[in-house]
Write a structure and sequence with these properties.
The protein is an alpha/beta fold. The protein is built from eight helices and six strands. Helices cover about 50% and strands about 15% of the residues. The protein has a six-stranded mixed β-sheet with strand order 1-2-3-4-5-6. A hairpin with an 8-residue loop joins β2 and β3. It is elongated, with a radius of gyration of 43 Å.
């Protein structure tokens, strides 16, 4: 499983665009050289307190171990995040469960793209404060969302490509159906001509068809054997019924 597979699974989990804003490769601020978070999910519902989740993707145990050994990477975001979660394939986190901080969530990504929490994240702060988001982080979120969204031109090109492929597929289906109808019509026309000729001879086509079917089912080898047996029996019968001429002369 690749990091791209995990990204797609997470985006599918938070695909309700009315509720969630998902950003990828979010820096703590704009500019070069700053720390980056793999993914961030902003819950846009007021009732959920505009919760901000940070998600770090790890595809192997060794990769996760390096993350735990470099706390500066994730701690840099903890003053702007409410929750922090590791997204990993099954089996990656188990060897390190004892050293993964208790407040971090662990999301398991299945081979089929499913997502489930092995451990739900806890609030990074015991008492969640309604704090302001730094403008640098806000700018980074906004730019990340904009950069990873397909442009209007890209969407139009994809739509036009799908529309063209759909029309071509429909045309091929219509051409195939048209040719099949032509072949079927030719067969029906030939049958009608044959029926008319047979009826003009005073013959019922159905009787001919029944006779052909009966003939097809005959066991010809058995039939020939019976004919030969009948011929032999008739020969014997003829010999028996025909007087012997030499006997008649003697009399």
């Amino acid at each position: 499983m690749t990091a791209l597979d995990i990204r797609e699974a997470i985006k599918n989990r938070f695909s309700d665009h009315r509720r969630y804003a998902v950003a990828e490769e979010v820096g703590i601020t704009t500019g070069g050289g700053c720390r980056r978070l793999d993914m961030m999910v902003l819950d846009c519902f007021y009732s959920n307190g505009f919760r901000i989740d940070g998600i770090e993707i790890k595809v192997s145990t060794s990769d996760l171990r390096r993350e735990l050994e470099d706390p500066e990477k994730h701690i840099a975001f903890f003053n702007v995040l409410d929750y922090y979660t590791l997204a990993v394939p099954a089996g990656v986190a188990e060897p390190l469960m004892d050293i993964i901080p208790k407040k971090w969530g662990i999301m398991i990504i299945g081979e089929n793209g499913s997502t489930r929490y092995k451990r739900k994240p806890l609030a990074l702060e015991d008492a969640k404060a309604d704090r302001d988001v730094p403008r640098g982080f806000l700018a980074s979120i906004t730019r990340s969302i904009q950069c990873f969204q397909p442009s209007e031109i890209e969407l139009r090109n994809v739509y036009n490509k799908g529309f063209k492929e759909g029309k071509e597929s429909e045309q091929r289906h219509m051409d195939y159906t048209r040719e099949k109808l032509k072949r079927d019509a030719a067969k029906l026309e030939a049958y009608d001509r044959l029926e008319m000729r047979l009826r003009s001879w005073g013959t019922d086509p159905n009787e001919i068809l029944d006779g052909m079917e009966s003939f097809r089912k005959l066991n010809l080898d058995w039939l020939l054997q019976k004919v030969e047996t009948c011929i032999e029996d008739l020969g014997k019968l003829k010999s028996f019924l025909t007087p012997d001429k030499s006997t008649e002369v003697a009399k």
